[in-house]
Structures are given as C-alpha cells and as structure tokens.
Design brief:
Layout (H helix, E strand, L loop, with lengths): L1 E5 L7 H11 L2 E4 L7 H6 L7 E3 L8 H4 L3 H8 L4 E6 L4 H4 L2 H17 L4 E5 L4 H9 L6 E5 L5 H9 L3 E4 L1 H5 L1 H9 L5 E3 L7 E2 L2 E2 L9 H8 L3 H16 L3 H7 L1
Parallel strand pairs: 1-2, 2-3, 4-5, 5-6, 6-7, 7-8
Antiparallel strand pairs: 9-10
Helix pairs in contact: 4-6, 11-12
This protein binds manganese (II) ion (MN).
C-alpha cells in the first residue's frame, strides 16, 4: 500500500522513517513544500524503491516562494510526481491570494505541457477555485485532491472532473469527512497520512499508519477489510498506470 501524501523530509529523522517504510513494504509519495527542498528530499529516495519524490510549491508559501517557480520547472522534468501544490482560502492565506493563483496556474500549465504527471493538490477552503483552475487544463488526467474538505456539490464537480482523492485517518475520524468519503467513487480513493503534520492521540502519523484507514473504509463500504485493501491496491495501480513508463525510466 502507498501513502500518497507524506512530508518525509519534515520528520525528525527522515532516513529512519524512509527505512522503516521500505522494510514494511509501504510506498511513500514524498511531497515537497518548496522547490529548493527538492535536492535534499530526493536523496531520501535514493536506494529506496518504496520512496518517490514529488516536486511542489505549497500554496501557504506561494507569497514568499514564487521566485522559485523557475526551479520548479527545472525539477519537474525529473519526476512524474507533483505536490504539494494547490490553493488555500484560509483568511491568513487570502493576503497573498493573487500569488497563489499565479503559482498554481503556472504549475498546471507546466504539468499539461509534457509527460503525464500525478498531482497532489491542496484545496482547503478553496475547492471551488481549485476546480475552476483544473477546468482550464483538461489535458491534466491525474489530479489527486488531498484531504478534500469541500461541500457535497463541490465533491460532485470534482468527481465529474475525474479527480482522485487521497484520504487519511483524520478524515475518517469525523462525521463530515466520513460523509464525504462515502460520497467518493470507490475506485477513485487512495490513502495518505499528511505526516508528520498530523497526529492521532498525540502520536505523529508515519506512512505505515495508512493501514488504520482500512477498517473505517471497510465499514463505510460495507465490505471486509480484506476487500477494502484489495480495492485500494487496485486503485493505486490504476492511478499510477499513466506514469508507469516514467517510473521505469527514472528509477
Ligand atoms: Mn500536506
């Protein structure tokens, strides 16, 4: 199984978390928050087949770091994975909203120009705006909405757009999140931790904690945990299929 959204470089000991994920056979999509973090973060994937690195520029940093877009373009050629990118409509991020729009638009344009990319997208309090932007880039086939928390009508729009969804333990812990997950197509869901930012009972989540989502998902779907795992693993293969050739070439 694969953790599709993890900030591996921000753990206290990234190599230890990477090694343990590798040992347990848990895949990690290691997202970056700034292009300048790429070199250090990509090193964590060296010699560890379970780890893949995504190039990102987090919307909360768009104001301070938009000058790194040229670096983003440089590293984009090295990976089929992009993230963390997107928009954040929280009041504290509204002050640099124009920068966010500029950065996300640049990212989507760059991603639609070349080979297929898997894109892990943040949309907190900005689901409508993220979907508006995605609608302008129909060439993008594999957007993955990370920790989606929009309305049900926005969820309907995202499903219509063909979005994937990565869901984590915290989403499944609350009624609103569970309700949204119940409304997502079963064949469009993969798992994530968003570690180390996310804690459950004061413990930082590690990539292998994604398995704790299987129980709640199985319950929502009315199937066994075994069947939920089978479905999620089939989803992971389908999601990665468009970038399979890039994976073989790069790693
Ligand atoms: Mn994140």
């Amino acid at each position: 199984m694969i953790d599709f959204h993890c900030h591996l470089d921000l753990y206290q000991s990234p190599p230890a978390v990477a090694d343990e994920s590798q040992r347990r056979g848990i895949g990690v999509l290691s997202v970056t928050t700034t292009p300048s973090a790429w070199n250090g973060t990509a090193k964590l994937a060296a010699g560890r087949s379970a780890v893949r690195t995504a190039i990102g520029l987090h919307p909360q940093l768009a104001g301070q770091r938009k000058h790194e877009l040229a670096l983003f373009d440089t590293y984009l050629a090295k990976t089929p994975f992009v993230g963390e990118v997107g928009l954040d409509g929280s009041p504290e991020c509204r002050t640099f909203w124009e920068d966010q729009l500029e950065v996300f638009d640049h990212v989507l344009q760059a991603c639609s120009a070349g080979d297929e990319k898997v894109i892990s997208i943040h949309s907190r309090r900005a689901a409508k705006d993220v979907l508006n932007q995605l609608d302008q880039y129909s060439q993008i086939k594999t957007p993955v909405l990370h920790w989606f928390s929009g309305s049900h009508s926005q969820l309907g729009r995202a499903i219509g757009r063909g979005c994937w969804f990565s869901v984590g333990p915290t989403m499944l812990a609350g009624a609103k999140g569970r309700d949204l997950v119940a409304g997502m197509p079963k064949d469009k869901i993969v798992l994530e931790t968003d570690g180390p930012f996310v804690r459950v009972r004061s413990q930082v989540l590690n990539p292998w904690d994604i398995v704790t989502v299987l129980g709640p998902i199985a319950e929502l779907w009315g199937v066994s945990e075994h069947e939920a795992k089978r479905q999620i693993e089939a989803n992971e293969r389908a999601l990665l299929a468009p970038v399979a050739s890039a994976l073989k070439a790069d790693y």
